[in-house]
Amino acid sequence: MKDDILEKYRTAGTLAARILKEGAQQIRVGSSYLELVESIEARVTDEGAALAFPLNLSLNEDAAHDTASWGDERILQKGDVAKLDLGVHIDGYIADTATTVDLGNNSLLLDASHEALEAAIRTVKPGATAGDLGAVVQKEIEGRGYRPISNLTGHGLAQYVLHQSPTIPNIAINGGVVLEEGMVFAIEPFATTGSGHVREKAKMEIYSQISEKPVRIPAGRTILEKIQGRKSLPFSRRWLGERKLDLALPTLIRSGTLHGYPVLSDIAGSLVSQHEHTVIVTGDGCIVTTR
Ligand code: CO
Fold first, then answer.
1. 106 C-alpha to center of ligand 1: Å?
2. Which of 152, 197, 210, 234 lies most in the core, judged by the most C-beta atoms within 10 Å?
3. Model-level pTM?
4. pLDDT number for residue 268
């Protein structure tokens, strides 16, 4: 990897780590969900960096892809398990990192995903496989009496690309991609008291552009103008700034212009924790950019 690219990954990572930590400290019983999300997102742009995706704040059985919507009136409650997943990029070089804040009595659940992440990081080196990482994650989480979420995975990163090979499973699989020096990816174990499998909810706040083909409806064209420059990186409905544009989103999904990311949830009443870091594989291990 060229030095200037490594520097951008590192700078994005250091900034993401700091903002995630400060953001986590803001989360309290009684906090406004919308204010939390908007203030943490604003810190990224205030620092001259950009968001790789809308800040995800997913509560309790919701594992991923929730963020604030228009006029979101939710207030954080006693007992909530809040996952904060932040993506920062500099010139497209992405740092993806997540942590969980416990407003109840769930420290063992948080330990499970945290220790799984640390064990997976210790396993990263050239020649190890993605399956080796999944096995370590599964063992750490199940050893603490929880389930790993089997259909959520870590993912490779590249310039302006949020999801590519290698896929890093959260359970043991045979083989998987053989890790090589210079690979960049996020490892993100999820531990749950539920089924270990997420399903899509109807709620959808986050979208990304997947095709450049021309769009006929005016509201659709306005949306594409507003997200110009994001390339394929996700954006939120809230970022569009005009509530009436919401109506065009389903049309753009049907025409294959946008992809939608529904909220992903384990069974009702379950609790999910998540921890995530971005790593770059070195000759004998890895650099964690998001510490
Ligand atoms: Co990620």
1. 23
2. 234
3. 0.97
4. 98
